[in-house]
Design brief:
Elements: H1 2-39, E1 44-47, E2 53-55, E3 59-65, E4 73-78, E5 81-82, E6 84-85, E7 92-96, E8 103-113, E9 116-127, E10 133-144, E11 151-157, E12 160-165, E13 172-176, E14 183-188, E15 195-201, E16 204-209, E17 214-219, E18 225-230, E19 238-241, E20 244-248, E21 253-257, E22 264-269, E23 280-286, E24 289-294, E25 299-303, E26 310-315, H2 322-325, E27 332-338, E28 343-348, E29 353-360
Parallel strand pairs: 2-9, 10-26
Antiparallel strand pairs: 1-3, 3-7, 4-5, 4-8, 6-7, 8-9, 10-29, 11-12, 12-13, 13-14, 15-16, 16-17, 17-18, 19-20, 20-21, 21-22, 23-24, 24-25, 25-26, 27-28, 28-29
Length: 361
């Protein structure tokens, strides 16, 4: 009986030992798999550094460091567009930037091994490859302008001058008699919104607001409010762009907007040959180029809306009245082009004068 019990105990011990060994093997196998996945490293980007700046037209060489000699392949792309290998060196790739847009781009490196993939990326920036032309202006004629108008938008349509004004409790849409500077028609916006830029499209006028994420649509003839739109960014300036609209939000981005739905179609980053240009404010489309006030400066820039490149800068320091140059808030703002006579007009916030100007390079 005792021998039988010993045999049973030995059998049980043997079975437990086998189970323990199998369990250990399973744990080891799982651990090995985990280690294999963790040790699969991508080809780290050696050059360029994240945050590097280039000019459109520069050739960029992306150099990677092999973290695993058994990788099946490495793919480098820019914003999803594949690049080409440089020479026969598997760790170098070439990027031709002639057709790139200005602004921020992402360089991505993907490393593949069997069914596993690792990825890393860096961000680089592209400046314009052209130096903006410097343009000056001279005064041709002056007109009265209401000092009550905190000018945010200014535009002509069929020879009629329209103005959008800001400040809480003061914001309004106006049809202005250019000879007298007085409003022939006025719609006061709700006191809790800060009015911004305006645009005329067909038989309607749209006026933005600053931080309310709301645009008001009016009947051009009657100033009857007929619709409202919402948008995610701040509202600063707005102008026509073919069948669509272009809008600014104070950053270096122009937003192409669907005129019917007010949804964003695309974004255009704005750069000159030195850096991004921020504080883009009131806008005017003149013969396909976007003229933009740069907030808190005496400068208007001329932007190619297809490329985002600043092609020219207009210095209006000599035209800005001295009494307004000393006031941080009463700055140059308001660009209006009269297609009927080809004349260009500018003013500022609470300025007492509207200037007809002529540009010269």
């Amino acid at each position: 009986m005792k021998n039988s019990l010993i045999i049973k105990l030995l059998a049980i011990t043997f079975i437990l030992l086998i189970i323990s060994c199998n369990s250990e093997k399973t744990e080891n196998k799982t651990q090995i798999n985990k280690i294999e996945k963790l040790t699969l490293k991508p080809k780290h980007i050696v050059a360029p550094y994240s945050g590097s700046e280039f000019a459109i037209g520069d050739t960029i060489f992306v150099e990677t460091q092999n973290g695993d000699p058994n990788l099946d392949s490495v793919i480098v792309d820019v914003d999803g567009l594949a690049t080409k290998k440089y020479s026969n060196n598997e760790n170098k790739f070439v990027i031709i930037t002639n057709n790139f847009s200005v602004g921020k781009h992402s360089i991505n490196v993907q490393s593949f091994k069997k069914n596993q993939r690792e990825q890393e990326n860096i961000v680089v920036f592209f400046k314009s490859d052209i130096e903006p032309k410097k343009i000056t202006a001279k005064i041709i004629k002056t007109y009265p302008h209401s000092e009550k108008s905190y000018t945010q938008g200014l535009t002509f349509d069929n020879g009629n001058l329209y103005e959008g004004t800001g400040q809480f409790g003061e914001s309004a849409l106006l049809k202005v008699n250019i000879e007298t500077g007085k409003a022939e028609k006025l719609y006061s916006l709700p006191s809790d919104v800060f009015g911004e830029g305006i645009v005329v499209i067909n038989d309607k006028i749209i006026q933005l607001t600053w931080q309310s994420h709301k645009a008001f649509e009016f009947n051009k003839k009657t100033f009857e409010l007929i619709n409202t739109f919402t948008y995610d960014m701040q509202g600063w300036g707005i102008t026509n762009y073919g069948e669509n609209l272009i809008m600014s939000d104070g950053s270096n981005i122009l937003y192409v907007i669907d005129a019917e739905t007010f949804s964003v179609i695309k974004q255009v980053q704005v750069y000159d040959n030195k850096s991004e240009i921020r504080n883009i404010n009131e806008l005017e489309n003149i013969n396909g180029k976007i003229y933009a006030n740069i907030y808190l400066t005496n400068t208007i820039v001329i932007i190619n809306p297809e490329t985002g490149k600043i092609e020219s800068t207009i210095d209006l320091t000599n035209i800005t009245p001295i009494k307004y140059q000393k006031e941080n808030d009463l700055v140059l703002n308001g660009i209006a082009y009269n297609k009927q006579n080809g004349k260009l007009y500018i003013t500022g916030k609470r300025w007492d004068t509207l200037f007809e100007i002529k540009l010269s390079e």
